[in-house]
Every structure is written in C-alpha cells, then in structure tokens.
C-alpha cells in the first residue's frame, strides 16, 4: 500500500477506537449545544447554514468530514480537510469568521470533549495513556481543520493531572460560558 493510500491514523489508533464507538454518537446534541454556546459560532451557523431547518444535517456533515479524515486514506483525509477549510473561508460576517483559529479550536474542542465524555459515560473512561494518545491524535485532526492546537497553553490534555483543569473562555461576554471546569485529574486513569 502506498503512503498516500495508508490511513492518516493507524488501524489501532486511539482516535479510531473512540470515534468509532457507537456510544460517541449519543453526544451529537451535546456537541452541537456546546458549539452554539459560543456567540460567534452560533451567529455564523445561523447566518450561513440551514441549521434551523436541519440541525442534525450540520452534525452529519461534520461527522462525515471527521470520519473521512480519521478512517480514510491519508490523501483523501488531506483533501477533505482542505475542502472543509475552503467552505469555512466563505463563512464570515460581523464579529466572526469560520476560519478564526479560536472558533475552530472551540468547535474542535467540543467534539473531542464530547467523544471523551460519551465514551466515559457509556463505555468506560479511557485509561490515562489511551486518553493521552486520543488527545494527541485529535490534535492532528484539529491542526488539519485549522485549530491552533500547538499553542503551549492548550497542549495539555484537559483531563490530565498536568493540566490546569480548565480552558479559557472563548470570549469575555457574559453570554459566553467558560469552558467546562469539571475536569478531574483522576478521570481516565
């Protein structure tokens, strides 16, 4: 198999195992609600999608793109990520741009957190090393999508003992909730 046909993530990768578990799908509504909790994301979605008429259509498109990147051949994963970034480049308006690295990070973080939460709730918490592998692999996914995951302040897995225990709020408006702060240093251990 040529390198272009090999999957971006190896068959035994934690990201494939976690995102591939059916229990993770239970979190679709949760991920959508967390995404929309950010006012700029909510405005972009409202003004540039058919979310009001078909909220789960947006989720399905997100899952299709994530699945193409996580499970598809590397060349297809890169093309899918590029196509998604191209679509998002047209999503702009007063106070938001879908390519804003902080907004991409917000949306990406909702997917990562929801996957971990659903896996822990319905399957079992991931053991520490598997959770760390999942997080590291999800950062590759995030980078492909345009999230600034290499920022030193955001490198630590939010559930690890080495983490500060919370992520910064997406913006300072009262309407914007802070990132969840209930991370437990023992979660996933």
Question: Topology of this structure?
Answer:
Layout: H1 14-20, H2 28-36, H3 39-48, H4 55-71, H5 74-89, E1 92-93, E2 96-97, H6 101-122, H7 128-145
Explain what the structure shows.
The protein has helices spanning 14-20, 28-36, 39-48, 55-71, 74-89, 101-122, 128-145, and strands spanning 92-93, 96-97. It is mainly alpha-helical. A hairpin with a 2-residue loop joins strand 1 (92-93) and strand 2 (96-97). The protein has seven helices and two strands. A two-stranded antiparallel sheet has the order 1-2. Helices cover 52% and strands 2% of the residues. The model is unreliable at 152-189 (pLDDT under 50). The chain has one domain (14-154). It is globular and about 45 Å long.
Low-confidence stretches: 152-189
Based on the structure, what is the oligomeric state of the protein chains?
Answer: single chain
Number of helices: 7
Strand content: under 5%
Strand order, main sheet: write it out.
Answer: 1-2
Shape, principal axes of CA atoms: globular
How many strands, what sense, and barrel or not for the largest sheet?
A: 2 strands, antiparallel
Helix-strand string: HHHHHEEHH
Write a concise keyword list for the protein shown above.
mainly alpha, two-stranded antiparallel ribbon, 189 residues, single chain, disordered C terminus
Task: Describe this structure in a few short sentences.
This protein has 189 residues and is mostly helical. It has helices at 14-20, 28-36, 39-48, 55-71, 74-89, 101-122, 128-145, and strands at 92-93, 96-97.
């Amino acid at each position: 198999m040529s390198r272009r046909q090999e999957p971006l993530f190896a068959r035994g990768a934690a990201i494939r195992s976690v995102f591939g578990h059916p229990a993770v799908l239970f979190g679709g509504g949760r991920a959508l609600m967390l995404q929309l909790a950010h006012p700029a994301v909510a405005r972009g979605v409202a003004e540039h999608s058919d979310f009001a008429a078909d909220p789960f259509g947006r989720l399905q498109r997100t899952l299709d793109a994530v699945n193409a990147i996580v499970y598809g051949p590397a060349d297809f994963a890169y093309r899918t990520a590029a196509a998604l970034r191209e679509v998002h480049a047209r999503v702009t308006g007063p106070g938001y741009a879908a390519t804003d690295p902080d907004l991409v990070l917000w949306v990406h973080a909702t997917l990562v957190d929801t996957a971990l939460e659903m896996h822990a709730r319905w399957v079992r918490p991931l053991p520490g090393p598997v959770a760390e592998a999942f997080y590291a692999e999800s950062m590759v996914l995030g980078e492909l999508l345009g999230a600034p995951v290499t920022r030193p302040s955001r490198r630590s897995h939010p559930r690890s003992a080495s983490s500060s225990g919370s992520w910064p709020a997406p913006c300072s408006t009262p309407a914007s909730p802070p990132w969840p702060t209930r991370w437990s240093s023992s979660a996933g251990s």
